[in-house]
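Model it.
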Amino acid sequence: MKARVHIPVHSAIGNYVTAIWETVPPGVSQESILPKAVVELVFNLSDPMQGILPHQHIASTAPNCFVQGLNTHTVHVQYSGSQHLFGICLQPHMMKALLGILPSECKNTLIDLTLLQPSFKSLWHQLNEAVSFEARVRIIENSFPVLAQQDCSRTKYFCDVFSNSSAYPPDSIDSLSKQVCYSSRQLNRKAQSLFGVSTEELLLHKKFRTAVTLIHGNKKSLTDIAYDAGFYDQAHFCRIFKNFTGFTAKQYQLNKSELPFHLFS
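Modeled.
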């Protein structure tokens, strides 16, 4: 697996682009992508791919470049040839300023970027012609606009809690309300607007993502991982994991790839 990641800390787009990534999985025909609760732009720089999105049963061909929001369940992808994906992770609260839509409009689906902004077709061609990951990163940093910070600091903090993979989940909605200085009702409205789910669902996704990261980061038992991620016990964790992914946490632990949230076959 060839995977690269760039964090644009000192870039002019660093206030809304959290990461730029690229993967080139060798000899893969199928991929299962676990829910990551990440808003990202994806550019397919190789052969066409088909995917079965959450709550769908028929595969559809993905556009050459698309935006996707929070997926509540596993996405199954089928590749017909070579694979080369390039992606850009966004701060959820900045998506409307960049694309004119909210992340909640992309929940469990993907939208062709060229339908939102025709200029993405030219950008896709530029990325395809670039000879290296570093060159593609420069194209993005030179092409994407400089955006003023959107919303208030509380909204940014709220998004950071769920977007930052290194941050542990809040103990409860009440504790999150105190951290963000929103009432639980305000939090729920913000979660629905940004992600298309309730605060309770979003908190479960955060605990799930934390558990997946822990599975990759150490050799602890699933029981210890469940408690560290904020679940009541292992049974609660395993039930949520199976509900989100369709397979057990033990199955994922045994078959995990070097890339978290991705299983290849």
